[in-house]
Amino acid sequence: MAEARAEAERAALDEPALGEARRAGARRGKARRLGCALALLFWFAVLMMPCALFYLAARGEIRLEQRQAPQPHAHPLLLIALVSEEEDRGLRIERSWIAGSQLDDNSLCVETAVRFLLWEASGGNQNVSFCDCYTRQDAGADWEFARTYGDVC
User: Fold this and answer.
1) Which of 23, 28, 101, 107 is the most exposed place for a label (fewest CB within 10 A)?
2) Are residues 125 and 145 in the same domain?
3) CA-based nearest residue to 96, from 83, 82, 109, 81
4) Is the domain of 4 the same as that of 15?
5) SS3 of the chain: helix, strand, coil, percent, to 5
6) Among 59, 83, 108, which residue terminates a domain?
C-alpha cells in the first residue's frame, strides 16, 4: 500500500512535466503537418509543370485575364508567351495591375510590366514598363483611352 501511495505521488509530481511534453509534442506535430503539406504542394507543382509546358507549347501563351481593367485582353493579370523570332527566343512575362493612386472614380490607370526571359537574344535590355490611363464621363459610361506614360504611373 505504501508503494502504491509513493507511485501516485511520483505520478502527481511528473504531471506538469508530462503536460509540457505533450504540448511540445503537439506543436511539433502541427509543424510537421504544415511542413508535409507544403512539401506536398511543392511536389504537386513540380508534377504539373510538364502539363503547363505542353499547354504553353500548344497554345503559345498562358493568360490570366483581369476583370477590373478596361480592355482586359490588352491588360492581362498574367501573360506568359513564347517568343519565337528570328533573333530572339524565350519567354515574355507580362503583368498588369490597376495603379494604386487614382484621382477620382472617373479616371483609372493600368500599369503594365513586360519582362523577357530569353535564351537567345539579339542584345540590349528589352524589358519595359508603361502606364495606360482611361477616363469616363460618369460611373455608367464606358472607359475611354486617355494617354500612355512611358514609365510607371
Assistant:
1) 101
2) yes
3) 109
4) yes
5) 40, 30, 30
6) 59
* pLDDT at position 26: 62
Q: What is the dihedral of CA 7, 8, 14, 15, to 10 degrees?
A: 150
Confidence of residue 106 (pLDDT cuts 50, 70, 90): confident
The 3-state DSSP class for residue 147 equals strand
- The reply to whether the predicted model has a pTM over 0.90 is no
C-alpha 86, offset from chain centre? 32
Nearest to 63 by CA among 51, 50, 73: 73
Contact 61, 82 (CB under 8 A): yes
pLDDT tens by residue, 20-71: 655 655 667 788 899 999 999 999 999 999 999 999 999 999 999 988 888 8
